[in-house]
Predict the 3D structure of the following.
Amino acid sequence: MTRNLPDPSEPWLTVDLDAIVANYHAIAARGPGAEVAPVVKADAYGTGAAPVARRLWAEGARTFFVARASEGVALRSALGPARPAGIHVLDGCPAGAAPRLLAHDLVPVLNGLDQVEHWSAAAPRGTRLPCALHIDTGLNRLGLRPEEAAALADAPGRLNRLDVGLVLSHLACGGIADHPMNPVQRDRFVEAAALFPEARRSLASSGAAFQTEDYSFDMIRAGISLYGGGPFDAPDPRIRPVATLDAPIVQVRHLRPGETVGYGATYSVDRPLRLAVIALGYADGVLRSFSPGGYGWLAGRRCPLLGRISMDLIAMDVSEVADAAPGQRVEMFGPNLPIDGVARQAGTVSYELLTRIAARVPRVHLGETPE
Ligand SMILES: *Cc1c(COP(=O)(O)O)cnc(C)c1O
């Protein structure tokens, strides 16, 4: 189902919600018995958190993760009272954050003993506040060190205002198949999580869910592979492409040998060349490192990008496409140019490619989108 398409003279990010649903089930199949909790931080990696979360709720998702409290507030409102999801905030409960978390029924992922104190102090007398506990097992980003977790568990008085429903940790090398650090972190996680036997356990993100060994425990926190990125930063046949970035040709030009293309005159023409100028630039989120070396997809062909990418325009060699004309849409990534390959060529990862797509690029959602 396709609703009102935006202006055809501008770039679009098309998001296939049916493909997200297929990926959700492909991830669920990796951990039978584990809940798949969609990670919808950064506007669901640029794909649109509201429609994505509503659609995944309809597929059975009941727990969601965001990074910031403000994202949690927006998600709570997008889901509405008819969808009382558990919304976990990965940044946890910094000083002063508790009132807003409480007001919107958000569950902080407590990342340190200071956050344990802040959240406990916010508990109304005689109540326990729900929370998750993040234990750092080697990433050294957020979370209690295992010895801090042990000290906390040994002093139950410090936990008597809290209801720890989930213990989680995050792998440093989950996105690398069979990396030896993964089982090391899993062993540390099992040991630390045993201190909180009532809590559910979650270790896996997308990459971890696709390891040869099982990392799924009670919950998989799934991000990039919902959105079409391969779990190991490479295209994966188990994951369907989700997002397509395309933009129309504004003008086709014929260049002669000796001319140059774009700012800095970095590309010199050495043969008669047909050039398409595309309505897409770094202000739309296309990294400047896409060119040279990258491609656009037109009429069944990969066409080389030429010269520097500018703010609103990209030049592409369409010498091989005889009938290239203004208005034709050029794919920058999507089903024909997989995001993992495009990202690698540009020196980055699919995560950055997706989350950089600018707000000025309209998102077009395909598939059933519950209101
Ligand atoms: C972003 C994030 C995830 C999701 O990771 P993907 O690799 O996108 O699946 C899971 N857990 C934590 C703690 C995160 O920050």
